[in-house]
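WARN no homologs supplied; continuing
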Amino acid sequence: MKIAVAGIGVAGAYLMNRLSDAHDIYVTGFERMPETDHDAVCAWATSKNVMSGLAKNCGLNFEDYIMHDGKHMMVDIGDSRNNSIDIRLKGMVNYDKLKLIKDMIRGTKVEFGRAPRKENLEQDFDMIVDSTGFHRNYLPKLRNEMWIPCVQYKVKYKVDKTPYDDFYLKAFPSMTGYFWYFPLGNGYAHIGAGDFERKHNNEFVEQFLKKYECEIIKKVGRPVRISPPLYCEPFTDGRKSVGVGESIGTVYSLLGEGIVPATWCAELLIKNLFDLKLYREHVIKKFEIYVLVYKFIQLKITRKFSFVKHWSDLLRIYKHMKNEEDRYGMEIRIADMMKISKI
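OK structure emitted
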């Protein structure tokens, strides 16, 4: 079986590693960016509790990639320090995402600087895996999807003049998005923001850059799809293409986090490679809670959320995250959820 993996990000790199070891499967990766420009866009934060096992599946030690091991995350939800949430972290880290991707694909066949046309891939391969993220280049276009534009800088501060020692978030009104400061160690950090209404992301980031003197290393911008898998169908084009990761909506919209779910999704595809109907069923089941979380975010953004009407949904989200603290890498408290619901 000949498989093309289009897009070498989190999901694509994991698939390249795992499928390259499979018997009678010949896999080739395609990445539109040249190898010298290949980057891993996003803030690089994830839960080491989960990623350690996923990296082990690829013969790698996740501890080797950790750049900052978080202890606390301050979430600013107002105009004063009294309006903040101090979340105790239980495994949330920043890691060298690009290095892990490169190590996952080492020894595999990846053609950089190429984004072949769909019809060309269909001639040469039995399956095309669309791991192109938001772009979803090889799948039917979605209607009525929801996405958030984001901008991010990699910056360097003098080691003794970093704005924060640990994770920091600033929530925008009505939960339309947030600003993030994620330390990378040795004075380096990722700072950025996403805002559905496009009012605060660039403005707040620019203010932060002026307030805290730093060297700008790199700037990137990209949208993040927050529609859940249930609303990102079809997962296939009915011929040879099948989606994985963010291309089919595996982003946890409350946090904007997609590293763990994209890798989980890739593993589901590996286990159901020869039964795409079953793959779809497993994806829908695995990410079922994402639908409820997405509806909560929609209500907040459109200012239609009512605690009286929707308290039971909020409670379900809390129970899910409380039971999955290791997966999210943080302590989940009902009082914090209540504060978040009032943003």
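The first helix runs from residue 10 to 20.
OK
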